[in-house]
Amino acid sequence: MASFPASTPLSLTIATRESRLALWQAEHVKACLQAQGHSVTLLGMTTLGDQILDRTLSKVGGKGLFVKELETALEDGRADLAVHSLKDVPMELPPGFELAAVMEREDPRDAWVSPHCAGLADLPPGAVVGTSSLRRQVLLQDALRALGRSDVRIEPLRGNLDTRLRKLDEGQYHAIVLAAAGLKRLGLGDRIRHVFEPETMLPAAGQGALGIEIRSGRPELRAALAPLCHARSWAAVAAERAVSRAMGGSCSMPLAAHAVLTDGNLFLRAAWGDVAQGGPLVRAQDSLVLSDLADLAAAEALGTRVAAALRAGGAG
Ligand SMILES: NCc1[nH]cc(CCC(=O)O)c1CC(=O)O
After folding, report:
1. Is 126 helix (H, G, I), strand (E, B) or coil?
2. What HAMAP family has UniProt attached to this entry (predicted)?
C-alpha cells in the first residue's frame, strides 16, 4: 500500500535550463512523475546565468541568476514546476514561491578531475587548478597550505560541465574540482580521479540534491510531488541551508555546510574561509537526535546553531 495519498493524474509542465545536466535532471523528474501516472512536458529556457560566462558568478549577482527566469515561467503559468540543483537555489525564495520537494540526494562530495595528476600532492610546480567557487577556493588553499604548496595557483573556471571539461582537456588547467553528482548523472564518472572526503573538501549546502520549486498555494502539485520527496535528504539539506541563511543568505559565500543522518542522528559540519586573506578556515560542527524526519524546523535549528558557532569563531 502506498504510504502517501494518491494524486489524481495531472498534466504538468517542467521549466528547466537547457544545459545537459539541467535537462538530465528535468528528464529524471519527468520520468518519476510519469511513473505516478501524470503526463509531463519540458519547457527549456536560457537563464542569465547561462549567458554570462566571462565573469565569476559572485560578481554578477550570485546563483539566483539560474532560477529567476524559471520562476517567471511559473508565475505566468507557462510551467507548473521548476527543477533545480538545490545548491543553486537561493536560501530565501521570493514571496509566492516554495520548495515543494527535495529528492534523494546523489553523492554530495567534490571530485578531483585531472588527466595527469592523481591528487593535490601530485601537482607540478606552479600548477593551475580551476574553480570559480569561493568555497572550493578557500578549501583548496587550506589543503595546499597544509602541503606547503604556495606555488599552486587557483584560477577561475566557468561554463557548464562539458565546457569546463573541455578547458581542462585543452590544457588550460592541470586539474579542476567539480561536484561528483553532476559528473555521475551525465555518465562522466570515469573522469573522477578521486572524490574528496568531506574532511578535506566539505561540500556546499544542498550539493547533489534536486529541488522542485512551485508557485505557493497549489496543493494538487504538492500531492503529486509527495512520492518524489526523500525525507532523509530533505532533513540534511534543511540543516545545511539554514547555515547559509544564517550567514547571510547569499549562495556566493566562501561557505561549506554538510550534514549526514546516521541512525536518527543528524550531524552537521560547516566551514568558512577568508578569500582575500587566505587565512585559516573557521570550522564548526554539532549534532542532534532527529526523532521525526519531517521535523525540518529542528534540522534548521541545528543549522542556525552551527552558523552561530562559525560567527563566534570569527566567520562572516
Ligand atoms: N554550480 C554549478 C552546479 N550546480 C549543480 C552542480 C552539480 C551537482 C549538484 O547537483 O549539486 C553544479 C556543477 C558543479 O558544481 O560541479
Report:
1. coil
2. Porphobil_deam
Top mutation candidate among 50, 52, 87, 129 for ligand 1, by most atoms within 8 Å of CB: 87
Cell 574553480, residue? 131
The pLDDT tens digits for 228-270 are 999 999 999 999 999 999 998 666 789 999 999 999 999 999 9
**For residue 66, what pLDDT is reported?**
73
What pTM was estimated for this model as a whole?
Answer: 0.92
So what's the pLDDT on residue 47? 74
User: Of the CATH numbers 1.20.81.30, 1.10.287.4070, 3.30.160.40, 3.40.50.1000, which one belongs to the domain with range 230-316?
Assistant: 3.30.160.40
What does the domain layout of the chain look like in residue ranges? Answer: 1-104+208-229, 110-195, 230-316
Q: What is the pLDDT at residue 3?
A: 46
- Please tell me if the CB atom of residue 85 comes closer than 6 angstroms to any atom of ligand 1: yes
pLDDT at 1 (0 to 100): 40
The rounded Cα 47 to chain-centroid distance in angstroms is: 17
Helical residues (DSSP H) of 132-230, grouped into ranges: 134-146, 161-169, 180-185, 219-225
Give the domain 1-104+208-229 fold: D-Maltodextrin-Binding Protein; domain 2 (3.40.190)
Q: Provide the residue type at 257 as one letter.
A: A
Partners of 261 in beta bridges: 266
Atom 10 (ligand 1) nearest CA: 208
Q: Give the SS3 label for residue 69.
A: helix
ipTM of the complex: 0.95
pLDDT for 316 = 86
Lookup: cell for 234: 530533505
Could you tell me whether strands 210-215 and 97-102 are parallel, antiparallel, or unpaired per DSSP bridges? Answer: antiparallel
Q: What is the C-alpha to C-alpha distance for residues 135 and 102, in angstroms, rounded to an integer?
A: 23
88 is catalytic: yes
CA 288 vs CA 17, 99, 270: distances in Å: 37, 24, 15
Amino acid identity of residue 265, one-letter, is: N
First to last CA, the chain: 49
Low-confidence stretches of the chain (pLDDT beneath 50):
1-3
